[in-house]
Amino acid sequence: AQSVTQLGSHVSVSEGALVLLRCNYSSSVPPYLFWYVQYPNQGLQLLLKYTTGATLVKGINGFEAEFKKSETSFHLTKPSAHMSDAAEYFCAVSDRNDYKLSFGAGTTVTVRA
Amino acid sequence: DGGITQSPKYLFRKEGQNVTLSCEQNLNHDAMYWYRQDPGQGLRLIYYSQIVNDFQKGDIAEGYSVSREKKESFPLTVTSAQKNPTAFYLCASSVTSGGNIQYFGAGTRLSVL
User: Fold this and answer.
1) Testing the interface with B: which of A48, A57, A100 to mutate, by most B Cβ within 10 A?
2) Minimal CA–CA distance to A101: which of A29, A40, A38, A25?
3) Phi and psi, residue B51, nearest 5°
4) Are A99 and B45 inside 8 Å of each other by CB?
5) What 3-state DSSP class applies to A57?
6) Considering only alpha carbons, which residue of chain B is nearest residue A44?
């Protein structure tokens, strides 16, 4: 099974500052990669995903992520944080011959005014 | 509107009691999943089903049971054998091809009285 590591359980940024959330996976074969967002007491919503092709993936709400095979990473960024970005973010991966997901432990983002 | 409906939103369990969490989807997805979410641990897979009348254990199936009698429905029973049931439970569904997106319900928060 895939292993997913999210560095930093909490990230605090100022409004307008860069948001950077880190995700590393364990597989030597590039998996499918996902970022989900969860607002308090709600389910998860897909931000973006990488399956094949261009390694820079753009998602909703101004987020993007870059797949780096050499670093086994899929870090999530947003150039300018908004108060509405305060939420918990999960990185998830699945093997290419599977449809189940393995999730990271999550990173909680707080945005300071 | 298409989506996944979980009920109830909040549930309380007494000692020795079995409780059932409902999950219904109208997305015509073959696969359905149950996850348990605890603070700082991400999502852990309890059970999953890729077709009616068939389901498999996930990583933490002990103390839980499921059924899949209809494509639209995948109820989860938390039995009295689950000694630490307090958590947020999320249901999801997807197609069964690789790189698929899992769609999530809004969750059920289970607490012990």
Assistant:
1) A100
2) A25
3) -160, 155
4) no
5) strand
6) B104
Q: Show the tokens assigned to A85.
A: 């970005």
Omega prior to B8 cis, within 30 of 0? yes
Amino acid, single-letter form, for residue A49: K
Mean model confidence pLDDT for chain B: 93
DSSP secondary structure code for residue B71 in this structure: T
By the CB < 8 Å criterion, does B42 face chain A?
yes
pLDDT at B100: 81
Q: Give B25-67 pLDDT, tens digit per residue.
A: 999 999 999 999 998 888 999 999 999 999 999 999 999 999 9
* Residues of A whose CB is below 8 A from B98: 32, 51, 94-99
User: Is the CB of residue A96 less than 8 Å away from at least one CB of chain B?
Assistant: yes
Are B34 and B89 in contact by the 8 Å Cβ rule? The answer is yes
Q: Which two tokens stand for residue B73?
A: 């429905």
Per-residue pLDDT tens for B6-35? 999 999 988 889 999 999 999 999 999 999
Place of tokens 């909040």: B10
